[in-house]
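Thread amino acids onto this structure.
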């Protein structure tokens, strides 16, 4: 019997995976989560053998969650996505599986069969290497698509402006709009923050709160508040602060940027 955890912020998607698992004789669902942080805590406390993981979630992407997993207890990961622009060819050539929403019973059964074969054949080190290979493939795909959407349309006052996505420093939710900051200028576009995150996928955007994305290529200073949240200052002078719920992902991102000791 393989223990399974499902992580997806859409209840219907979690139910679809759970019902498919229940039709398989050897997949036992021990937890399902719509919040990635709660899921991460549960996985650390009781690592499953198989993890069905949504790529795009509001609070923390599936990729970020996967990077935060303990490599010594890394489960077999099946990424679930509704977006074929996530370089699905990378999943095909790697040893990590994916499910493209919406999926049917036949596709799920094929995935379950691959999971069984990999569990029998792979060690934990094999799984780590497969995951690293996938990340490399995805990063190459992002670089190859760097020119796919170099600009976005936004408004300031009564005028519409074409903005280079690479120049946008901060993206913040503002009711039914997002506010885009470039230097001292701000622009608005009708969008959700999640939609904006997809539009800016060619940039190193980091979500630091439920309502704020920061283009880390523009960050010039980082400090901490007394309670431990991060204060980021971008090139144009705008200052934004991470929220408590996003403290760990910000810390982990910054840790990866540190120079290794001699």
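Threaded sequence (262 positions):
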């Amino acid at each position: 019997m393989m223990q399974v955890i499902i992580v997806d912020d859409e209840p219907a998607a979690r139910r679809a995976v759970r019902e498919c698992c229940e039709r398989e004789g050897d997949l036992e669902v021990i937890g399902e989560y719509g919040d990635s942080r709660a899921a991460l805590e549960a996985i650390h406390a009781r690592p499953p053998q198989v993890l069905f993981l949504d790529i795009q979630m509001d609070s923390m992407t599936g990729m970020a969650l996967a990077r935060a997993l303990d490599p010594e207890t890394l489960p077999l990961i099946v990424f679930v996505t509704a977006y074929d622009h996530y370089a699905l060819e990378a999943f095909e050539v790697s040893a990590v599986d994916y499910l493209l929403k919406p999926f049917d019973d036949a596709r799920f059964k094929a995935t379950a069969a691959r999971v069984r074969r990999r569990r029998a054949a792979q060690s934990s080190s094999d799984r780590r290497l497969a995951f690293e290979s996938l990340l490399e493939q995805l990063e190459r795909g992002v670089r190859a698509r760097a020119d796919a959407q170099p600009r976005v349309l936004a408004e300031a006052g009564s005028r519409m402006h074409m903005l280079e996505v690479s120049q946008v420093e901060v993206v913040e939710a503002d009711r039914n709009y997002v506010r885009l900051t470039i230097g001292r200028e701000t622009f608005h576009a009708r969008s959700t923050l999640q939609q904006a995150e997809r539009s800016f996928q060619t940039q190193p955007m980091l979500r630091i709160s439920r309502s704020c994305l920061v283009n880390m290529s523009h960050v010039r200073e980082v400090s901490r508040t007394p309670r431990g949240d991060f204060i980021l200052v971008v090139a144009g002078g705008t200052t934004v602060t991470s929220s408590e719920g996003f403290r760990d992902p910000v810390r982990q991102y910054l840790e990866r940027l540190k120079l290794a000791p001699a």
